[in-house]
């Protein structure tokens, strides 16, 4: 993000390590074009980054085309505040669980953000002109009496006339306004939202129920599914009548909303291989549902068993420190050929879907300067130990990468590591299609 | 073996898993944001499984310990006595004890029923060529040194037990009919049929159990209530009580040992054995 990795004189390490709970990033999402990147944190704030276009950016190296790939802060706003449920005497956390961008239809951008209980629709609009030339007040500062006005002029020339204000360019201002608040739809914690391709409806899923909302109607929602085994739900990118939800056992169910109003019976069931031991089941269940961009359903993330395999021996201690309940997001690139997911110790891993080859990388401030090439890391589990390998016992389980996003068209990834956002770009293969 | 080691680790930590799970459930009630349904369902799942593992391991340990305590006691008895001396005070028990130790060789006439060796042979599955062979009429000493054994010191009771690869009681008892054909060929070490004298009962539980086993060894025709199936009914009643059964096992056993309880259970427990 353009920060200096070195601080020559003063050691700020201890300051960097101190993390305010509210600053921990809890969700990351690109919009459909990839120009905007939204992050939500535990304090209920949303920060939107915008990609710098080449015309604005600094000089590029020879041979590079397109945007510079740098993302700068575009807007920040407080999306959710801490709340209290008086009926149940429960605090409602302001942590942003999910952000979803709506397809852009005009100059403004719309996004949905949700905490545990409430979904909000926000309108993000730019203003780079403002009207100037009002003369509603006279020289002494008093509002002019309307009855004294005899003319309307464009320029401020006569004392007894109103002038029509003129729009003049000004500094860019980004305004974010709440447009809808969808409340009281869920008893349990909302874990996912998904916008339908029809652009009019969206679904929100909690641990037990999927509700379908219309974007214009806030006081009503349809409960289209009740399943005690619900984990997350998603609409496919091109079909507005089906959706998929995943269960804690790792199965995926496809439901067709045309069949019935209440989608209790699934149309298709996808059952991946699951290990039966109860500890492993906790791990398998921590997986989101995602669709390939082509519209086909992902039935299993084949790399998943390999991602955390080295943690098998530490299952009991992971259970003790609650790390076994960590939900690692899994994202795809636009050509569906590479899967990426996070791990501990600020590591994240990428897997090629066809070959199954994987690479482990690290998102850590000390090791990455701007424009430096990431070097691969390895968790040492046995055999010949190479220099730079990290042993399983020296993994830092507090540094976990749970949230990430992949640019919809290019090989740019956004990684959320606790309170830091890392944006990496593949300079060798900037476009996903050429990979 | 990696799998075995892992299984052992989890079994050993069952108790800690239970306490950790309970603590998590308790803490979730006060954590900010309310109870997370999914996480707590997983925690309760872990708790349930850990409890099952704990109960299984506990019972296996208890029964194994009991088996070998009696083994040791009878061995000591045998060592003290002249093996050819048949004039013991509690004649029935001594005969049974010696017969148990020495296999079929010194079986006094008349007081054995055919099923007894079958039952014993099942309950004490030792590898062929085991120290059972050492139990000649001279009476072996601390035999068993050649088997696959693990010596365990119980820090609570200060009892040293030697754990062999053996079966649990219920497996033995149910398999008793199937073991019958091969039983005659095997020479047995001291069996768990428990023909130990009353003198060395450390606890009521042990006493009740030994009484039960002694009764098992007797002729089923003479006393239909005290068959070897009473052990099955014993275990069934304990396991059927769920977790609370673990705490009240002594009470259960005493109940089961009573004639009335056995009489009522006799019919269906016999059916289970027959099957």
Please tag this protein with its features.
heterodimer, A: 435 residues, mainly beta, 4-stranded antiparallel β-sheet, 4 helices, disordered N terminus, B: 275 residues, 59% helix, globular, disordered C terminus
3D architecture notes:
- The complex is a heterodimer of chains A (435) and B (275).
- Chain A is built from 4 helices and 29 strands.
- With 435 residues, chain A is mainly beta.
- In chain A, the strands form 9 sheets. A 4-stranded antiparallel beta sheet of chain A has the order 1-2-3-4, with no helix packed on it. In chain A, strands 7-8-9-12 form a 4-stranded antiparallel beta sheet, with no helix packed on it. In chain A, strands 13-14-15-16 form a 4-stranded antiparallel beta sheet, with no helix packed on it.
- Chain B has 275 residues and is mainly α.
- In chain B, 59% of the residues lie in helices and 4% in strands.
- Chain B has helices at residues 2-12, 14-28, 37-80, 91-102, 115-123, 169-183, 204-217, 229-240, 243-247, 249-257, 259-274, and strands spanning 149-154, 159-164.
- Chain B has a two-stranded antiparallel sheet with strand order 1-2.
- The radius of gyration of chain B is 21 Å and the shape is globular.
- Classes of the chains: A mainly beta (435), B mainly alpha (275).
- The A-B interface holds A 85, 88, 90-93, 95, 116, 188-189, 207-208, 231, 248, 278-279, 281-282, 285, 312-313, 316, 319-320, 322, 325 and B 6, 9-10, 13, 16-17, 20, 24, 32-34, 36-39, 41-42, 45-46, 49.
């Amino acid at each position: 993000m353009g920060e200096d990795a070195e601080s020559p004189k003063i050691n700020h390490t201890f300051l960097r390590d101190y993390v305010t709970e509210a600053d921990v990033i809890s969700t990351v999402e690109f919009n459909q074009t990839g120009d905007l990147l939204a992050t939500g944190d535990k304090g209920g704030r949303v920060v939107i980054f915008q990609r710098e276009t080449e015309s604005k950016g600094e000089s590029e190296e020879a041979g590079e085309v397109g945007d510079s790939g740098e993302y700068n802060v575009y807007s920040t706003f407080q999306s959710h505040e801490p709340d209290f449920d008086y009926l149940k005497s429960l605090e409602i956390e302001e942590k942003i669980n999910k952000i979803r961008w709506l397809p852009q239809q005009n100059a403004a951008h719309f996004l949905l953000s949700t905490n545990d209980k409430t979904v909000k629709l926000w309108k993000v609009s730019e203003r780079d002109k403002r009207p100037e030339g009002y003369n509603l007040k006279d020289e002494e500062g008093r509002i002019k009496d309307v009855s004294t006005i005899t003319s309307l002029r464009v320029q401020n020339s006569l004392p007894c006339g109103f002038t029509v204000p003129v729009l003049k360019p000004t500094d860019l201002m980004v305004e974010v306004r709440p447009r809808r608040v969808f409340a009281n739809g869920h008893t349990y914690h909302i874990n996912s939202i998904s916008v339908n391709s029809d652009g009019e409806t969206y679904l929100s899923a909690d641990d037990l129920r999927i509700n379908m909302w219309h974007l214009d109607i806030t006081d009503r929602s349809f409960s289209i599914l009740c399943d005690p085994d619900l984990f997350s739900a998603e609409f496919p990118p091109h079909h507005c009548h089906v959706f998929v939800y995943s269960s804690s056992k790792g199965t995926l169910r496809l439901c067709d909303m045309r069949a019935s109003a209440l989608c209790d019976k699934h149309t298709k069931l996808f059952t991946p291989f699951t290990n039966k031991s109860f500890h492993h089941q906790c791990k398998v269940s921590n997986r989101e549902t995602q669709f390939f961009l082509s519209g086909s359903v992902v039935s299993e993330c084949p790399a998943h068993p390999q991602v955390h395999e080295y943690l098998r021996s530490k299952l009991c201690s992971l259970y003790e420190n609650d790390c076994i309940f960590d939900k690692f997001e899994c994202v795809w690139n636009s050509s569906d050929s590479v899967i990426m997911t996070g791990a501990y110790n600020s590591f994240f891993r990428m897997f090629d879907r066809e070959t199954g080859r994987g690479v482990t990388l690290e998102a850590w401030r000390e090791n990455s300067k701007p424009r430096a090439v990431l070097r691969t890391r390895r968790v040492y589990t046995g055999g010949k130990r190479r220099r730079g390998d990290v042993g399983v016992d020296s993994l830092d389980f507090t540094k976990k990468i749970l949230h990430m996003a992949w640019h919809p068209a290019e090989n740019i990834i956004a990684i959320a590591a606790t309170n830091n956002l890392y944006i990496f770009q593949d300079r060798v293969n900037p476009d996903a299609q050429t990979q | 073996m990696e799998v075995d080691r892992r299984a052992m680790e989890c079994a050993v930590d069952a108790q800690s898993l239970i306490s950790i799970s309970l603590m998590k459930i308790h803490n979730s009630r006060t954590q900010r944001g309310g109870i997370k349904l999914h996480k707590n369902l997983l925690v309760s799942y872990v708790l349930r499984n850990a409890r099952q593992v704990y109960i299984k391991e506990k019972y296996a340990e208890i029964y194994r310990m009991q088996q070998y305590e009696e083994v040791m006691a009878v061995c000591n008895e045998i060592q003290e006595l002249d093996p050819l001396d048949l004039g013991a005070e509690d004649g029935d028990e001594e005969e049974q004890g010696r017969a148990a130790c020495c296999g079929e060789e010194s079986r006094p006439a008349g007081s054995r029923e055919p099923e007894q060796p079958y039952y014993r042979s099942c309950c004490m599955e030792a590898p062929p060529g085991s120290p059972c062979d050492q139990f000649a009429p001279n009476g072996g000493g601390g035999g068993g040194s050649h088997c696959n054994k693990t010596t365990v010191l119980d820090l609570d009771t200060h009892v040293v037990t030697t754990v062999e690869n053996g079966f649990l009681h219920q497996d033995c008892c149910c398999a008793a009919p199937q073991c019958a054909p091969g039983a005659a060929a095997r020479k047995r070490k001291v069996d768990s049929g428990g023909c130990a004298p009353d003198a060395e009962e450390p606890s009521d539980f042990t006493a009740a159990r030994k009484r039960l086993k002694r009764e098992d060894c007797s002729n089923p025709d003479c006393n239909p209530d005290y068959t070897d199936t009473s052990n099955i009914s014993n275990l069934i009643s304990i396991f059927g009580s769920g977790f609370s059964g673990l705490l009240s096992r002594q009470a259960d056993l005493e109940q089961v040992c009573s004639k009335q309880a056995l009489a009522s259970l006799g019919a269906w427990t016999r059916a289970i054995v027959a099957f």
